[in-house]
Amino acid sequence: MENVHQAVEEDDLYSGYNDFNPTFYSEFENDVGFQQAVRTTYGRRPPIGGKFPGTAIGARPLFSSSGSRMPLASSMGRPVTGAVQDGLARPMSAVKAAGYSSTLTRGSAFDPLGRSRGPAPPLEDTPEEKIKLLEKKINTLIEESCMAQSTGNLQLALDKAKEADREERALVKQREQSGSADHINLDLTYSVQLNLANQYEKNEMHPEALSSYKAIVKNKMFSNAGRLKVNMGNIYYKQKNYHKAIKFYRMALDQVSNAHKDMRSKIKHSIAVVFIAMGQYSDAIASLEDIMSETPNITAGFNLILCYHAAGDREKMKKAFQKLISVPLGISDEDKYIPPSDDTSSKMVIEAIKNDKLSQMERDLKARAEKYITTAAKLICPAMDTSFASEFDWCVDMVKNSQYVQLANDLEFHKAMACLRQKDHNQAKEILKTFEKKDSKMKSAAATNLSFIYFQEKDFDQADKYADLAMSADHYNSAALTNKGNTVFVKQDYEKAAEFYKEALRNDSLCTESLHNLGLAYKRLNHLEESLDCFLKLHAILKNSDQVMYQLADIYELMGDRQQAIKWLMQVICVTPTDPHVLARLGKLHNDEGDKSQALQYYTESFRLFPCKIDVIEWLGVHYIESQFFEKATQYFERATLIQPTQVKWQLIVASCYRKSGNYQKALETYKGIHRKFPENVDCLRVLVRLSTDMDLKEVQEYATKLKKAEKMKEIREQKVKSGQGNTAGGRREGSGGSADSNHSSGSNRGERLSAKMRSLTVSNEPYEADSQKELDASYMDPLGPQIERPKTSAMKRVDDDDDFGDEELGDDLLPE
Q: Please, which domain of life does this record's source organism belong to (predicted)?
């Protein structure tokens, strides 16, 4: 205790630690061994030579009896660190986590993380985890099947459904093996089987679908599975097995409680549709009336009107129409799409919901309701015994007092179109003129149709007036621009007409009427390349339009490419194989190409279909005259005589054929008959004089006197024509009496060629026959040409007597949406 001193409060408890005793200082910097030990691991190794530090052993190590060198124990009696004794290496530390083990020999690898033992063995899933993974896979397959069906890939959807069914069966088997059969997921099983049945039905594999549905319905573990009998009824309806369809619909109806009114209404409507397909309108009416009394809807109301129309009950049609227009649609007002303020975020939200799927569904429902009401009104009005206009007015009044007020104008418009179909143009014009005070769209539509009506009546001034009115009401109305172009076209201002057609195409690139008329305008301007381009574009839109293909053929013929013209006319024949005008045109082209056999075939077929076409009869007659078949030629020219009895040239040719065939007596009788009909015909008198002289008849002097008188009268008339003082009545009488000079001067090249061929019937010393053939030069206008080249009006469809009241009336495309 004497060495123990009590600390004084003032003393520093930590003083003296930094004191340095110079006794322990040595020159370490100059010690080579110390510096080498610091720089390397030399200082941490046991010395090989010399003596061990802290031991009494000398510099040389001791050897064992075996001759091996072995370090001795330390002074404390423990082995030296790192020494090997009894085959074991002493660890350098007592901590095993450092990686050392007492069982390892010297030289073993240092592996503190145990990587040499390899990866850990995988954990094994429990049966419940395997079941959950399999359920997840089945749900994924069902989703993939549904997505494939929505994209239209029905085969992939069916394959996924089948795979889901196989996996679900494996799941049930695995649950049974694991002893958890009581925990089967019935909802998953129901989903798999229902999806499989649906996919079979979508792929039209009806037997497999029915088998799948039956398996679901018979399974008592599925609640409300009886409703699937509706799907089975739908399949039987597609198979036209109507009795079984009704049976399953009624069985499904029994499975649905009265609380589900909408479901029961849909099933009843399906039953009514089957009755309509079977023609049992009374049963269908009973089901539809039940629906309209409980849960009325637009489709059921429209079908009820159809059934009354089929049954002929006109009064009930009007009552059903009143029920139809009173059905609530359940669509909110359009005011909800008007932003309440100028807030940008509110406007963005309104724009987002304005075109979403819900809004689109509402618009589709409204459009379908308007279509049903309009169609029902058009069905009701013609069915009434009273006047057509009064019944249409009744429908308009009913609509004005309903929620479909905007349809009243459309019905008025349809009334005008109906009057137009009944050829009551005045009534149609009166109704359309009432739209002049309506909104711009209806005003433009009415003015467009008025312009069309006046154009058809050839009142081009009124047509031009209402076309301008339609354009002022709606300058982007392509139909109005087309009508305006038509009024300019008939005034032969083709450049200006083309500008209107171009503007109409800029507003509506699919306006086929404007494109057609633009091609006609270019053709009149002799811009054949531009016209060809227009009609080729139109052909790309209207693939099977014979009118367009005929125009292409005509343009190619004008360009001198007869082969292309023949190609397009052959396409016209494929569309309308019984068109005699096209067949005659093909005959003409083949004749120009020098192919007489093909020309004869097409001309003969044209004559068979339409034996009243003069140029066809003329060509056939000339062809048989060239072939020396005068009897055959006589048959065709006699037909021409029946068609044009006032044309003396055909009778003269018939008489000439008789003479060339050697039947002189028949020829003389024919010439006498011609003289009785046309006593002033100089050509006939000349032939009679010559024949009477050759046959030594006593009438020769009489015919000679008449010939001189007729020639003198002819000279007097010619002098009057030359002096400009001719009598027009006498000129017409001379033309009908047989003078062919004027006709010869205006004859076409084809007529001149035919005239040259006909001169072969006579010899050079028979001038009367040669002169008589000049009558063939009278030109004949092909009615197909002007009909084709007439500009089309804004409405492509014509008004026919036998047209039904449908969606094809004039101006339907101009109605406001």
A: Eukaryota
